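Our platform keeps sequence and structure together, in a single record for each protein. Because each token names a local backbone shape, the row as a whole describes the fold. One such record is reproduced below, unchanged from the form in which we store it:
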Amino acid sequence: MGSEVGGRLVNMTVFKRPDIRFPPAKKKLWHELLPNSRFLVNMYAAGSSLLPDSVITTIAKGILTTRGAPDFGMFREGAILVNNRGERFTDELKNPHQALAEQPEYQGYIIFDSKFAKKFSSWPCFVSTAAGVAYAYVQDYERDTPDIISKGQTLREAAARIHPQPDTVVRTVERYNSFVEKQGDTDFGRSPLGDGIVTPPFYVMGPAMAYIGITWGGLDVDSNFQVLNEPGQVIPGLFSAGRNAGGLMMMGHGLGLAWALTSGRLAGKIAARSVPA
């Protein structure tokens, strides 16, 4: 909308590196089907204020267990990544998202065992972040998104429920475990290799895909958060803050929220000065 009134866009070609992410559900989740009229939204809000915190937390986890990006720590701690053919295709510790984008149907699956799952059931090892919950663990995915996680007493059982080539998955894991025993990955040179995938039950998560999440770009602003046009002049009455204002690039969980709140407050105070009393 800002560009439509002449706002200058900057850094639109600067992207955060792709992430490996679980795709959205094929069917809408229950909360997405709720009507969103103002009257009903007010009713939802009133009801939430009456419910105990434990109930709200349970509902929030069910909604917000993210289909976002599996944490890189999963690979660092020993999980492996296979494609639709059931084959490893890269060193999982070196930019696996880029290699995933070149695989059949651009899809991959994450494989691990129960020893790994136990580690990723509590802080500091998490599967992904989840807004309002902070972190999502293996048990959250099992409860809230069973369509993208499979568990079985044998690896073939786990893979058969979710992967198109379970037999190849079994052979791939056997080969990987042999690398762990010899402490040498002769396929891709991965190091460290973790403890192997040997302890039942076994888990397969997927499919996952490589997504370009966000551009760092946005509307160009001056030090008062006023939007600039193509010649660099202020557009009267138009302000931009947070990630909508292109140029400030921050890494790390939560820093974008902090900047959105801070810059939004500052921009609001400056904008208010131009409003007649």
User: Anything to note?
Assistant: The longest strand covers residues 202-211. The chain has two domains: 3-16+214-273, 21-211. The mean pLDDT is 89.
